[in-house]
Each structure stands twice: as structure tokens, then as C-alpha cells.
Specification:
five-stranded parallel beta sheet, Rossmann fold, 8 helices, 20% strand
């Protein structure tokens, strides 16, 4: 996915379960609906209360998910807490071509797979200010058993070992400030020289007539 000035930026947002990354993405899209598109992942886990197919996730069976892998229909996929998660590729490509900045909210295994396949992908990692706050958020959510919470905290420790692979660390302490920080980081990527070669060449061509001796 080579980026030009008119195409969107592919951004992967990861974070510990309970870090608030989903809430950040929701508010970002509500505040800047013409700028961003959130990729909807496919998953084999069951819906949580309030979730619906085609909105938060595409909820599919394991057999359906394996067929998507076989048909190369996923940008990335990974297994997390006994369930599969993956990103349908066609939607992502369509939104980028339309100039939308596409955000993938996926875990660390998938993020690294996307970066490996598409090196210009922007990687952001969201975390609470400390580990105790993460535990409190998981507990207060009230949707999971103590066993699942312990599993997620154990998984968070493992994920913390790979944070250095990301471009930016976003500390979710104040939600409004965090949303604006993520927006600023992504939009600043549009100004990178590496992503503006076509514009640079155009300016050079226009200035050539002013060169000394021309």
C-alpha cells in the first residue's frame, strides 16, 4: 500500500484490554467523521452485550474464518484468548483510495504482521497511566469473570514486552486530550517527506525554470 498525498494513512491502534482504545476510536470518528474510517474486524468470539454484527465486529464461525484465511481475504489475522481476529482487506483498500485515514484496532500480533507487509503503516499503542489502573478498569467493566480478568492481565504483561515496535505510546489518562493527541499524531504523518514524493517532484519541476543558468 504505497502512500501518495491523496491517499489515506493506514494506522494500527493497539493497547491492553481495558486501556480504552475502543472508546478513543469511537470519539475520534464521531468528532472527525469525514477524516477517518474504522476498519471492522472479523472475529470468532461471541458478541458482548450491546454489540452487533457488522458494527463492532463481523461475528463469524471458526469455519467461516478459516475459509477467509484460505481465500486470502484478510489483511492480517491472529488468535487471542482462544478466538480468531482478522481484518478484511478489501474494505481497507477502498477507504484508503478514497482518501480516508483508516484505523485498524487490532492486537499486537496483527499489528506487527501489518507493519511487516506494509512498512509505512503508523503504529500507536494505548495504555492507562499504570498497571493498577488497568486492573481497576477491567474489574469495573463488569463483563468478565475473575478468571478472564487474570488472563487479560497476564496477556497485558506479555504485550508490554513488544511496545517498542510501535511508533507512539499514547497514555489514556484524560479521554478528551487523548483523542486530540491521536488525531494530531495521525494528521502530522501527512506532512512527512517520505509520503510526499509526488508533490516534491511537482514543485521541483515548477521551479526548474528559475534555476541559475536556465
Amino acid at each position: 500500500m504505497k502512500r501518495s498525498r491523496k491517499t489515506g494513512i493506514l494506522t494500527v491502534v493497539s493497547g491492553f484490554s481495558g486501556s480504552g482504545k475502543g472508546t478513543i476510536m469511537k470519539q475520534l470518528l464521531e468528532k472527525y467523521p469525514d477524516t477517518y474510517a474504522l476498519s471492522i474486524s472479523a472475529t470468532t468470539r461471541t458478541p458482548r452485550p450491546g454489540e452487533s454484527h457488522g458494527k463492532e465486529y463481523f461475528f463469524v464461525s471458526e469455519e467461516e474464518f478459516l475459509a477467509m484465511i484460505e481465500n486470502h481475504a484478510l489483511l492480517e489475522y491472529a488468535q487471542y484468548v482462544n478466538h480468531y481476529y482478522g481484518t478484511p482487506e478489501a474494505y481497507v483498500r477502498q477507504q484508503l483510495d478514497q482518501g480516508k485515514d483508516v484505523i485498524l484496532e487490532i492486537e499486537i500480533q496483527g499489528a506487527l504482521k501489518v507493519r511487516e507487509a506494509h512498512p509505512d503503516t503508523l503504529l500507536l499503542f494505548v495504555t492507562p497511566p499504570n498497571g493498577e489502573e488497568l486492573k481497576n478498569r477491567l474489574t469495573e467493566r463488569g463483563t468478565e469473570t475473575e478468571e478472564v480478568i487474570r488472563s487479560r492481565l497476564s496477556r497485558a504483561w506479555q504485550e508490554a514486552q513488544g511496545v517498542e515496535a510501535y511508533d507512539y505510546l499514547v497514555i489514556n489518562d484524560n479521554l478528551d486530550e487523548c483523542v486530540e493527541q491521536v488525531h494530531t499524531i495521525i494528521q502530522n504523518e501527512h506532512a512527512r517527506v517520505a509520503g510526499n514524493h509526488e508533490l516534491i517532484e511537482k514543485i521541483r519541476a515548477e521551479l526548474k525554470g528559475f534555476a541559475k543558468g536556465e
